[in-house]
Amino acid sequence: MRGQDDALRRDRDDPGHRELFHIPPAEGGRYPVAAYLAGNSLGLQPKATRAGVLAELDAWATRGVAGHLDGEHPWLPYHEELREPAARLVGALPTETVVMNSLTVNLHLLMVSFYRPRGDRTRIVVEEGLFPSDSYAVRSQARFHGLDPDETVIRSVDIRETLAAYGDRTALVLLGGVDYRTGELRDIPGITALGQEAGAVVGWDLAHAAGNVPLRLHDWGVDFAAWCSYKYLNSGPGAVAGAFVHKRHTSSVTGGLPRFEGWWSTDPATRFRMEPVARPPATADAWQVSNPPILAMAPVRTSLSIFDTIGMEALRERSLRLTGYLMDLLDPRLVVTPREPGRRGCQVSVRVPDAAGLTKALRYNHGVVADEREPDIVRLAPVPLYSTYHDCWRAAEAVRAEVDQL
């Protein structure tokens, strides 16, 4: 087995960007800082985040209401500063991208527009292991339309087989871009094309994909997508999320595409005329409802600047090197993540009898921070921005030591 010296040599040759982040102290083991491999659940805090938030607090303290129009980053157009870097992150046009709300709120706002059951075409196709909050969301959408969610929501093991059987009755396909349990990267362009050929709208939950794998939502023709910003995007717990609506839909906003509207859904040039009828722009901004929370958006702004500086392609390459190294160190009988580089993100999952027990032992006996999904999955995510080969080596050593005792 590769040893500690090999891991340290790899870190010297391929150091990543750990210096940009705060690394938590270890709660166990013999190392002073944690081997933090839980960025798929909550990313670490960039060192620049505090200054970004304090700058907005200072602006509020010194300018009051004038901060909406004055200062280095006026609040009125603040969300517009996030539009282009967010678009670059997910491979979209700026007009197709908006940073707003939280993930499930965005999915609901988008399904108002894109889940429109008619006649026999009412089904919503999701993956068998859909994340629970997404399941709650699609079932409640079916119920809202007067449909039985048990009949309407089709949980699929094989999307292609399901569409072959239900394609003419499917209104919406909604899937996770990366399987939150195994870390498997789905064929987003292929499944999108297949669903659309069947006559369905295809949307994606990119909570575990944004900031993890390169995306080209515009080129792939995805109808809509949403993602959170607190995992791989390192914007803090409950951070403001993002949404994508393809240009072919944003261009028809004024043509009657159903949406919920609010203060920020109208053209900013006419917003303060205080007119009773909204004038939605032909962009993803038309799906906004409320004015953005500036103090919560400041960390997103900091995070996106990091991704813009380093680039997703470079991060993806380092991600594959880290995950490949970690998978080589782990017992292959435990690993459930696909070994093929094109089929995984930066999460490596192992299956063990007692996932919660192993996660606790890793943390308090070895200073390795991972997380679990009951009953038998432990997730280890070497995030290319701040994780190291030594973190991976520590994790593999700890897993082996604890599993040998089970």
Automatic annotation (TrEMBL):
Protein known as: Kynureninase
Reaction(s) catalysed (UniProt annotation): 3-hydroxy-L-kynurenine + H2O = 3-hydroxyanthranilate + L-alanine + H(+); L-kynurenine + H2O = anthranilate + L-alanine + H(+)
Residue span of region Disordered: 1-24
Enzyme class: hydrolase
Pathway where this protein functions: Cofactor biosynthesis; NAD(+) biosynthesis; quinolinate from L-kynurenine: step 2/3; Amino-acid degradation; L-kynurenine degradation; L-alanine and anthranilate from L-kynurenine: step 1/1
UniProt family annotation: Belongs to the kynureninase family.
Keywords: Hydrolase, Pyridine nucleotide biosynthesis, Pyridoxal phosphate
Cofactor(s) recorded in Swiss-Prot or TrEMBL: pyridoxal 5'-phosphate
Organism (species): Phytohabitans aurantiacus
Role summary: Catalyzes the cleavage of L-kynurenine (L-Kyn) and L-3-hydroxykynurenine (L-3OHKyn) into anthranilic acid (AA) and 3-hydroxyanthranilic acid (3-OHAA), respectively.
Binding site for pyridoxal 5'-phosphate: L103, T104, F131, P132, S133, D134, D205, H208, Y230, W263, N291
Subunit structure: Homodimer.
HAMAP family: Kynureninase
EC number of this enzyme: 3.7.1.3
NCBIfam families: kynureninase (TIGR01814)
Bias (Basic and acidic residues) ranges: 1-21
Modified residues (N6-(pyridoxal phosphate)lysine): K231
Pfam families: KYNU_C (PF22580)
